[in-house]
Amino acid sequence: MLTVETIVQSLASGLLMGLLYGLIAVGLALIFGLMDVVNFAHGEFLMAAMYATFGCVVFLALDPVFAAPLVAAALFALGAVVYLGVVSFAMRAKTNVGMVQIFATFGLAILMRGLAQWLFTPDYRSIPTSWLANKTVPVFGVFLPLPQLAGALVAIAAFGGLYLVIRRTDFGRALEATREDAGAVALVGINRNRIFALGWGLGAALVGLAGAIMATFFYIYPDVGASFALIAYVTVALGGFGSVFGAFAGGILIGLVEATTAMIMPPALKSVGIYAVYLGVVFLRPRGLFGSI
Amino acid sequence: MRISRRAILIGSTASVFASGLRAQQPAEVVIGITYPFSGANAQIGVDAQHAFNTAVDIINNDHDLDLPLAKGTGLPGLGGAKVRLVAADHQGDPQKGRAEAERLITQEKVAAIAGTYQSAVAVTVSETCERYETPFMSVDNSSPSLHRRGLKFFFRAAAHDEMFSTAMFDFFDALKKKGKKIETLSLFHEDTIFGTDSSNAQLKLANERGYKVVSNIKYRANSPSLTAEVEQLKAADADVLMPSSYTTDSILLVKTMSELGYKPKAIVAQDAGFSEKALYDAAGDKLEGSISRGSFSLDLATKRASVGKINALYKARSGKDLNDLTAREFMGLLVLADAIDRAKSIEGEKIRAALAATDLPGERTILPWKRIKFDESGQNNDADPVLLQWSGGKFVTIFPEQAAIAEAIWPMNKA
Q: Is the residue at B237 inside a domain?
């Protein structure tokens, strides 16, 4: 049953999916790296982005390709508001700061899910037609679905852009500096709160891009974020906490491992491969592949 | 401690008074329904609630229909008591199902419970009901193992997956007689009790009747990606693809098949996701000619007079047409209420006895069944399943012959 064609197809699909996993996870890694806060509402950000894309398609008749920048902008605002309205207060806790942060974002996740169910009903939505949907590029007998292909390209572009922003701009340098020592940056006139809010905005905008692309081929409903969020947490832990490049590499690795596992084991066990690799990394290199913490 | 005569007198008077109260007829009968109202299958719960409320409307108000309890108001056997529903959210989680069932029985004091969509949850809910001697009406669970656990308080009016799968294989045999080529099958099923029971039944039938199962894929429910699974289905390229999947996975399966350029020669699905409007809204164009088993289709209106009217009542509430699930949910509650009415009591044991004595002719249902009569395990063996084909934007009954409205289109995609 295992022909060269199926192996290549599986690996290609795994690579495309992996890049998307990376794009979903990078916002999480960015925020964690910046301020040591794990955003448990990350999956719900993805859900919000998918609904926003769906809304653009239905009400504005915009193709998801054009909706993507709008959705990213909207998610940027959402991320910044969440930081200013929820997380910055949670960080003021005098004791048990970690716990307070976890419960704050976890509570936010449940609130967002509940709101989505109330406003949009729990029905499954799909975007039936778009430029990307239902198109497949055959390359030598290997099928590359256009939505995932576009997702992979967006992911690569986003990582490239993020790299430039972090390395080449004042904002990026401020981000890095705040990450290194949030107390000291105040001395050189960097507003910590502002950097954190922008960091949350940027992280959410990245997951917004992922959501816009995913809306073209995945079903949308209030709990859709849950299964992707779990993978995103593993991706970040695997790639290394706080490492943006680690999230990129971790995503690709997870996509490939998942595809390989499914070839040699029953598909019901395909996530076993992911967690086996993850455990291996935890044992041998607890800070993750590219982690610096 | 000294017990005075007066205390004894007061105590015994109180207990006589209390038992006297209990014998009085209740003003309302509370029935618990437990469904996923949040989580991946929340929409199923929302639709089910509309179906149950439609049934309550039929019971509590006067309707000129040939259905149990339609004429007159309330339950005449209990002095016209009205039926009230209490809904509990089990989120698709068997443990939450157990806790919610216990709460419904002990705190909400329900006379009986109906549910639950997911067979895995029906396992724990029905066990809890058994412990409290409260009847459980499985209205839409299809795992065959459910009624084989020796439970006294478990009842299922609808067919289970062995009956459904038998209908599928009868259909294959009939097609083969007409000269169609059906030799190989691909089974594709999710990993909870619904999917595994369904594929076990299909595997057994395939072996008995000489069909070759070329791939048998179990996948994790709510997977982010089904690419690897579809790759294997594509490589096997069986004559029939037989999925047992809930809505989310069904949507992803159909979309992934199309993306990877796999056009199955035929699909014969074990209901669930394949009877949901959401799937056909998302990918109906790729499913022209796909077949699902069911217990209901709207074209039954030609054979059962009440179907059209009930559908109109349901649609006014939900904005959707009745489907295989909601039709069974509606009927299940009527059967349960009918038994409570005949029991003239809300005591578990009496309702159980009345349920066991149920004998309702098929004409007085909205389903294509011969009749409703439970065997010792609580299963109705006269719930004849039908096969429905998605064609031109609606379901058409194609099997068995006595219920068929049209001839099946086979195969759905030519090789």
A: yes
